[in-house]
Sequence to fold (158 residues):
Amino acid sequence: MKHEVKWKLLIPAILLPLAIGGLSALLTGNSMESYGAVIRPPLSPPGWVFPVAWSLLYIFMGLASYIVAVSPVSKERRERALSFYILQLAVNFAWPVIFFKLSAYGAAFFWLLLLAALVLICYLLFRHISGTAGKLLLPYLLWLLFALYLNLGVWILN
Fold:
């Protein structure tokens, strides 16, 4: 079944998470320099990996939210799923500030646990609306698990 792309929804859906990530990066300033100065756990990727990975993840999130927004399910199901999506975006926005700007590695770890839980809920809600939307959130969820490992390692080692 062919669906017409609703560009007036798709473009903002992709731009929203990119803008939130960009604003968060702007607020954290020299975050990659400060990350390079801490003792990091094994398997820590070089700094350039993070903006590339996050940009892709934000695009996937935006696509997933668009799919949910145009899905032929009840308004209540869409709104519930998209409410969790917006909530996790807000929590996502704050994590770099806590980790990089405040260097509060323990608090950042627990904030990241909250984020992972919200993304898991979002994934489940999205998946029940559209398998494709759910699959688009899986790389994000996996990246957050890796980020939890990195955050915990930085917290313990510093």
Summary: The helical segments are 7-28, 31-37, 49-69, 75-101, 105-129, 131-157. The mean pLDDT is 94. Residues 75-101 form the longest helix (27 residues).
